[in-house]
Amino acid sequence: MKDIASETRPLFEARDLTKRFPAPSGLLGPKKQVHAVEGVTFSIRKGEVFGLVGESGSGKTTVGRMLVGLIPPTSGNMVFDGKEIADLPPAKMQPYRRRVQMIFQDPFASLNPRRRVGDLVAEGMEIHRLGNRAEQREEVARLLDLVGLPADAARRFPHEFSGGQRQRIGIARALAVKPDMLVADEPVSALDVSVQAQVLNLLHDLKEKLDLTILFISHDLAVVEHFCDRVAVMYLGHLMELAPRESLFARPRHPYTEALLSAAPVPDPARKRARIVMEGDVPSPIDPPSGCVLRTRCRYATADCAQTRPTMNQVAPGHFKACLRDDIL
Amino acid sequence: MLRTATKIVRDPEMALGVAIMAVLVLVAVAGPFIWRVDPLKVNVLNSLLPPSLDHPMGTDDVGRDVFARFIWGAQVSIGVALAVTVIGTLVGGVLGLIAGLLSGAVDLVLSRIMDAILAFPPLILAMAVAIGLGTGMVSAMVGVILAAIPWYFRLLRGEVLRLRHMMYVESARALGASNMRLIRHHILPQTVSTILIQASSVFSFSVMTMAALGFVGLGIQPPVPEWGTMITEGLAYALTGQWWLGLFPGLGIFALAVAGNVIADRLRDIYDPKSGLGIGG
């Protein structure tokens, strides 16, 4: 892993990022909202792989979708390369859209089945008017080679490829517009385990070669531990903990992370780990608990946890947690 | 597309529908050049002659050749049905696309207007419009188009809402694609089959409704030999034994409507994604 200390300028910053969706409600009842993302603050340094983990419904994908401009935030700021982009009108978003690209979870659904691979890869260049037709065709060939696909792939249709190959097409498609940052939303979770490593290695090589910054969204802790420099843990729309990888996996400081790590399988039968089971289900994001959102399932919760919403506090160098209890973990 | 074409050719029902349609179109297009008889020429001496070699469909009460009128009627029916289908597809389809893409207030207003139109039985609506605008071909067509617009509207709106959330549409949006580009490259191509199916049904609906309007005197006016009005004219003679006046135009309407419906029905099955045959590719 490259030394990231030398390049610490944040490429992207989210401050108090919040997204609420209108919830389906009765005609007369009060208007309800889904609290998908609530007051999330983090920054991503240039050249790092920033992991965002959490179970489904934790809001991690919503963060990614806001980041690439697919949905506008309800409130909060997003600063990319020094520029505020959260409230830009669509027309001014265009240069930013080019610089931040997304890799989608499902490589089967995210490629239009009726278009040829060459057209799919060239689409971004067409939209952003990068080069003429001939140059674009050359670039497509170069990109296909870069992601490890045969040159004749350009003339074929997505359904002729396997899941791993399709994800490579998705990566080529994102790279075609020469982005600075990639948002990889569970890029390998739809793939067979045997090809996950190949695609991850490809992403890693590309990151080094093209000097990319990556927001890596995943629920797979083993993958995150392998791939990310820093990791943020989300639960019910809130950030729970944010720390450098080594620090987080060596000593989780937040009850939620503790439980999450204890649930992940350890590839060593000799190493026994206490299994911490969270009681109950994730509460509804339409009506999240007061105070700390984790308190309904947290074994350390006190009366105070229902009153006060914890903020992110530094507990070790670069290691933050949102928990009122300083006396645990 | 090639596989779709093969599938259509190998489908016997589809082949029948296409064959009937082809024969009727051929009659309408080539008929006047082969059967060079003036459909408006009155010859009272030849009135009410039964079918013969000189008059394959007999003659009517003022001695006009029914076959020549049948040919002209085919032109009128097919031409009007085509115009209704095309205009209905364009207007209803574009409105549906707009409602689906913009959603919000635009969608709400357009959808309620379409619901209001749908509240009327289509034939009654077409009649009301035809009466309101004054009887004639154009007002009858406006009535039929108006009845057909909501069908396209709902269809396309639903398709856009469905496709808008497809991951590959999201993916194109993440690349920065404009709404126009999304429609042109990622949404419209996927709706072609749905539109074709609906268009075939609307074609049949138009044939039947225009004939019904003609039958009650609200459609195309004499002396233009529209099949519906020809049936009305023949009705008076059905009881006195001159069956050929009403039978042939009736068969024409029947065949054309059946052909349209069979084609719509088979297209639906052929394009059905669950039938295991993807289109494109």
From TrEMBL, chain A:
Return the InterPro entries for the record: AAA+_ATPase, ABC_transp_ATP-bind, ABC_transporter-like_ATP-bd, ABC_transporter-like_CS, Oligopep_ABC_C, P-loop_NTPase
Q: Which residues form a coiled coil?
A: none
One GO MF term attached to the UniProt entry: ATP binding
**Protein's cellular compartments:** Cell inner membrane
Name the domain of life this protein comes from: Bacteria
Keyword Nucleotide-binding carried by entry: yes
Could you tell me which Pfam families the record lists for this protein? ABC_tran (PF00005), oligo_HPY (PF08352)
Q: Which family does it belong to?
A: Belongs to the ABC transporter superfamily.
Protein name per its UniProtKB record: ABC transporter ATP-binding protein
Organism (species): Sinisalibacter aestuarii
Q: From which lineage does this chain's organism come?
A: Bacteria, Pseudomonadati, Pseudomonadota, Alphaproteobacteria, Rhodobacterales
Automatic annotation (TrEMBL), chain B:
Q: Which PROSITE patterns match?
A: ABC_TM1
Residue ranges spanning the membrane: these are: 12-35, 78-102, 123-153, 195-220, 243-264
Note the coiled coil stretches, chain numbering. Answer: none
SUPFAM superfamilies this protein is in? MetI-like
Domain ABC transmembrane type-1 as annotated: residue spans: 78-264
**What Pfam families does the database record attribute to this sequence?**
BPD_transp_1 (PF00528)
List localization entries.
Cell membrane
Give the membrane topology: Multi-pass membrane protein
Write the record's keywords in alphabetical order, separated by commas.
Cell membrane, Membrane, Peptide transport, Protein transport, Transmembrane, Transmembrane helix, Transport
PANTHER family referenced in this protein's UniProt entry, alphabetically: D,D-DIPEPTIDE TRANSPORT SYSTEM PERMEASE PROTEIN DDPC-RELATED, OLIGOPEPTIDE TRANSPORT SYSTEM PERMEASE PROTEIN APPC
Family indicated by similarity: Belongs to the binding-protein-dependent transport system permease family.
Q: What is this protein called?
A: ABC transporter permease
What organism, scientifically named, is this protein from? Sinisalibacter aestuarii
